Amino acid sequence: MEVLVGVSLLLLCFVSHVKAVTVESCPLATGTLLQTEVKKTVTLTCMTDEGMDPSKQKELQWFRNGARVNVPEENRLYRSSLCVQPVTKEDNGVIFMCQLKGDASVNSSIKFDVKYPPDLNDTMEMFVEETTDAVLSCDVRANPPVTVAWKKDGKVLDLTSGSYKTTNNGITAQLSITKAKRDVHQGTYICEVNSAVYGTMARMFNVTVEDKVLRFPLGPTISGVVVILCTILFAIISRRNKIKCCSKSN
Ligand SMILES: *[C@@H]1O[C@H](CO)[C@@H](O)[C@H](O)[C@H]1NC(C)=O
Ligand SMILES: *[C@@H]1O[C@H](CO)[C@@H](O)[C@H](O)[C@H]1NC(C)=O
Ligand SMILES: *[C@@H]1O[C@H](CO)[C@@H](O)[C@H](O)[C@H]1NC(C)=O
């Protein structure tokens, strides 16, 4: 019995001396996932479970995706707070970790899930030469992900006609036009993006199909044409002379 009690006490002592750090957040996290939005403010507080014992100067360290975050010295002992203000879309998926200095195995992390709308709300003027290709691009990065619809002159674009091709890798959505023709491709296009959180956003493209610019130099062409005309002229003259000769001999 005495041995058992002794072992239990020993265990209890051992358990109460297991070092740990915990991270609390405002707003509160769900487990280790903190849901927030761009432009918001998040406060993280890291604490040791050892209480304020001045004899044990427990220093805490912060890491953002593995990179050290510098905090003032007075904000490192027993309790350390970090303020993320404002939250940006670059903070999405980022892991903030607090650890005991000198013992990396005593750590606690929190992961950011940052909601942000796509950065779209503008108009692009585009000039495309007849028979050349064009690409209309839209930045569709957003959290949660969005759906994309292409429209032309107010109607959903029929992708089976007009030699259109679309791609979307979650970062950029593109509409490709092959061999632009004015009567088919000129008009106002819209890349319409739908977000379950932020609603509808769009980028407009005013596409003008221009006449093909002559690319070859005009000077040599004219002299070339002149040379050909002269040759033909000389040929006709010499022929006429021959004919004349013939008629003379006749
Ligand atoms: C955090 O602690 C755990 C468990 O003690 C350990 O396995 C892990 O390697 C530590 N993480 C870092 C980054 O040191
Ligand atoms: C889009 O841009 C227009 C004009 O620049 C502005 O008035 C409008 O508030 C913007 N909308 C969004 C959702 O940013
Ligand atoms: C785009 O084209 C439409 C229709 O031709 C026109 O009303 C609008 O002003 C144009 N937008 C810009 C920004 O030039």
Please sum up the structure shown.
This protein is of the alpha+beta class and 250 residues long.
Task: Give the arrangement of secondary structure elements.
Blueprint: H1 2-16, E1 21-26, E2 33-37, E3 42-48, E4 60-64, E5 67-69, E6 79-84, E7 95-100, E8 103-115, E9 122-129, E10 134-139, E11 147-152, E12 155-156, E13 164-168, E14 172-177, H2 182-185, E15 187-195, E16 199-210, H3 218-249
The chain binds 2-acetamido-2-deoxy-beta-D-glucopyranose (NAG) (3 copies).
Keywords for this structure?
5-stranded mixed sheet, elongated, 250 residues, glycoprotein, Immunoglobulin-like, Ig-like_dom, 2 domains, disordered N terminus, immunoglobulin domain, cell adhesion molecule binding
What does this protein look like?
With 250 residues, the chain is α+β, with helices and mostly antiparallel strands. It has two domains: 2-115, Immunoglobulin-like (Sandwich); 122-210, Immunoglobulin-like (Sandwich). It has helices at 2-16, 182-185, 218-249; strands at 21-26, 33-37, 42-48, 60-64, 67-69, 79-84, 95-100, 103-115, 122-129, 134-139, 147-152, 155-156, 164-168, 172-177, 187-195, 199-210. The strands form four sheets. A five-stranded mixed beta sheet has the order 2-8-7-4-5, with no helix packed on it. The longest helix has 32 residues, at 218-249. The N and C termini lie far apart (150 Å). Mean pLDDT is 83; it is low at 3-18 and 243-250. The structure holds 2-acetamido-2-deoxy-beta-D-glucopyranose (3 copies). One 2-acetamido-2-deoxy-beta-D-glucopyranose binds at residues 104-105, 107. One 2-acetamido-2-deoxy-beta-D-glucopyranose (NAG) binds at residues 123, 125, 188, 206.
